[in-house]
């Protein structure tokens, strides 16, 4: 998802990938793979073995990656112009061989240098990933399995093939992984270096609906945009994000690990209680109703038999519950939307609910709070420190907060 005002960058933006193609029927999938890698922001150069050019043309691949394809050691033999395989290996952040034939895998193990791709692999300084593609008997053969084991030992990332019908007509394991899955795999691979890699974060977002009768509820105007922007920004920084969403009409942001949809405060409380103990960071951004009708009518109220008064009872305080059970390694951030400047009230919540920080926005600030695509926030920390930001898009606010929490809370 891209939040209206400022979409996040694709996850492979700026990543330099050397895509090696070898002589497998699966080379046709590499066209889709190249497109997918580019769509996700990667800069791609293609190296093809002579065998690969039998299956898909260099022209197709060059057009897709918008760059000439390398397949020979020399570019112009008469003029003595040769392709600098060493440079390619240094240029790349990663070399991905997809499809990887049994032949090329074997050459990688014994250090073969019979073609340009092998030379690039032999001189590579960057990490290497392979996506094997072959018939099932070739794949399960001791030679191939032993080659793959050796490559793994040397740190090569092996993207396992899938199981299904093969070009030979047989059915089994050996199909090259699907281009989308390979691209997902690479995103995860690159994400391990991101600041929030390995961190598990739960975010609550949106309003809650507290039913009055069969069709009506008590709710509030929260759109969920701020919580969803935070989920997107944290996931882009490598966090494993679980989003607990009240009733909102927003798509799940890209790369969010899981989403739990709830309706009432009680449902949200149940979900959070189950998830929170496994998390490193909790962000309570939802506008949870503090109270609910004591009784919910199963039927729809009709004109003439509407109850003269509705008794309200308090909902559980989800944030206080998280604070009360917070473990030593966990960090907890609350949000407070106040109708005045709210500092005193926010400071009270910070202490009372055992929070590490509280993000304050005021309904008094134009462009801040419910429904807007922008927000203006201040963050108060335990110990008295506070940081204020200007009015920005909610995604930019989310990016600021994610960076601020990384440096101050060290989740
Ligand atoms: C139609 C056809 C399909 C092939 N498919 C594969 C394959 O999927 N996997 C594989 O390891 N070899 C396959 N081969 C064999 C390779 O093309 C052959 O081993 C070649 O030498 C590989 O060279 P390279 O690894 O330098 O590209 C196929 C051969 C043909 C003729």
Bound molecules: flavin mononucleotide
Q: Main sheet: which strands, in order across?
A: 14-13-10-15-18-19-21-22
Number of domains: 2
The CATH architecture of the largest domain can be given as 3-Layer(aba) Sandwich
- Strand percentage lies at 15-25%
Query: Structural class of the helices, strands and pairings?
Result: alpha/beta
DSSP strand count: 23
Determine the N-to-C terminus distance: 25 Å
Q: In the CATH hierarchy, what is the class of the largest domain?
A: Alpha Beta
Shape: elongated
Instruction: Detail the poorly predicted runs.
Output: 1-7
CATH topology of the largest domain: Rossmann fold
User: What is the fourth-level CATH superfamily of the largest domain?
Assistant: CoaB-like
The largest sheet, given as strand count, sense and whether it forms a barrel, is: 8 strands, mixed
Query: Average pLDDT value?
Result: 91
Helix content: 25-40%
Kindly provide the radius of gyration, computed on alpha-carbon positions and rounded to a whole number of angstroms.
27 Å
Number of separate helices? 13
Topology summary:
Layout: E1 16-21, H1 27-39, E2 43-48, H2 58-65, E3 74-76, E4 81-82, H3 85-91, E5 94-100, H4 102-110, H5 116-123, E6 128-132, H6 136-140, H7 142-153, E7 157-158, E8 162-165, E9 171-175, H8 179-191, E10 200-205, E11 210-211, E12 217-218, H9 225-236, E13 240-245, E14 258-261, H10 265-275, E15 281-284, E16 291-293, E17 312-314, H11 318-324, E18 331-338, H12 343-352, E19 357-362, E20 374-375, E21 378-381, E22 386-388, E23 392-393, H13 394-408
This protein binds flavin mononucleotide.
């Amino acid at each position: 998802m891209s939040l209206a005002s400022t979409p996040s960058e694709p996850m492979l933006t700026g990543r330099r990938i050397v895509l090696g193609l070898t002589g497998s029927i699966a080379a046709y999938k590499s066209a889709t793979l190249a497109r997918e890698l580019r769509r996700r922001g990667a800069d791609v150069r293609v190296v093809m073995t002579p065998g690969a050019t039998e299956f898909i043309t260099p022209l197709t691949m060059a057009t897709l990656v918008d760059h000439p394809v390398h397949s020979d050691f020399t570019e112009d033999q008469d003029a003595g112009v040769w392709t600098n395989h060493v440079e390619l290996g240094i240029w790349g952040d990663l070399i991905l061989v997809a499809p990887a034939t049994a032949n090329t895998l074997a050459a990688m193990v014994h250090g073969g240098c019979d073609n340009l791709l092998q030379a690039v692999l032999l001189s590579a300084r960057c990490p290497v990933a392979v996506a094997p593609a072959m018939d099932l008997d070739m794949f399960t053969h001791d030679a191939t399995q032993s080659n793959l084991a050796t490559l793994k030992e040397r740190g090569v990332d092996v993207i396992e093939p899938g199981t299904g019908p093969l070009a030979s007509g047989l059915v089994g394991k050996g199909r090259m992984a699907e281009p989308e899955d390979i691209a997902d795999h690479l995103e995860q691979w690159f994400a391990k270096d991101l600041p929030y890699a390995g961190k598990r974060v739960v975010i609550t977002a949106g309003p809650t609906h507290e039913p009055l009768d069969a069709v009506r509820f008590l709710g509030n105007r929260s759109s969920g945009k701020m919580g969803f922007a935070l989920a997107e920004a944290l996931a882009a920084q490598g966090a494993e994000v679980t989003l607990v969403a009240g009733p909102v009409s927003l798509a799940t942001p890209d790369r969010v690990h899981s989403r739990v949809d709830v309706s009432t405060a009680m449902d949200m409380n149940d979900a959070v209680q189950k998830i929170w103990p496994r998390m490193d960071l909790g962000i309570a951004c939802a506008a949870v109703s503090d109270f609910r009708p004591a009784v919910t009518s199963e039927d729809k109220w009709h004109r003439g038999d509407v109850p003269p008064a509705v008794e309200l009872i308090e909902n559980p305080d989800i944030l206080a519950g998280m604070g009360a059970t917070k473990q030593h390694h966990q960090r907890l951030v609350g949000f407070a939307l106040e109708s005045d400047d709210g500092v005193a009230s926010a400071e009270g919540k910070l202490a009372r609910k055992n929070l590490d920080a509280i993000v304050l926005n005021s309904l008094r600030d134009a462009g801040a709070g419910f429904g807007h695509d922008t927000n203006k926030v201040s963050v108060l920390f335990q110990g008295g420190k506070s940081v204020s930001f200007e009015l920005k898009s909610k995604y930019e606010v989310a990016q600021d907060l994610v960076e601020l929490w990384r440096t101050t809370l060290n989740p």
